[in-house]
Specification:
Blueprint lengths: L1 E2 L20 E2 L6 E5 L4 E4 L5 H10 L15 H6 L6 E2 L3 E2 L6 E5 L5 E5 L5
Parallel strand pairs: 1-2
Antiparallel strand pairs: 3-4, 5-6, 7-8
Length: 119
Amino acid sequence: MCTGRPGWLTVSLRVGKYKKTHKNIMINMMDILEVDTERQVVRVEPLANMGQVTALLNSIGWTLPVLPELDDLTVGGLVMGTGIESSSHVYGLFQHICVAYELVLADGSLVRCTEVSTV
């Protein structure tokens, strides 16, 4: 299985030949779900892109501490692709500013992943 997103929607120059031989699953998860102003957390789906997130945050006077330069980059792509060289000497790479990830496993169960405290 792989995502059914067509190659022209990606930022990569790589041709995903595997998409022709694998079962393509369409995932239209591109929304900003919530902005929690008290906790200063933005909850988004993996295909929400930086243009959407930046426009919404700018409208309330906020920005991300690690802000990639390309509006078409998706949150999921930045996390899985280690931020495409977008980084901050204070906050690190894009995935370092994420406080949690929710993953749907092959059996359909939902897993919430957060940082483990070593204290």
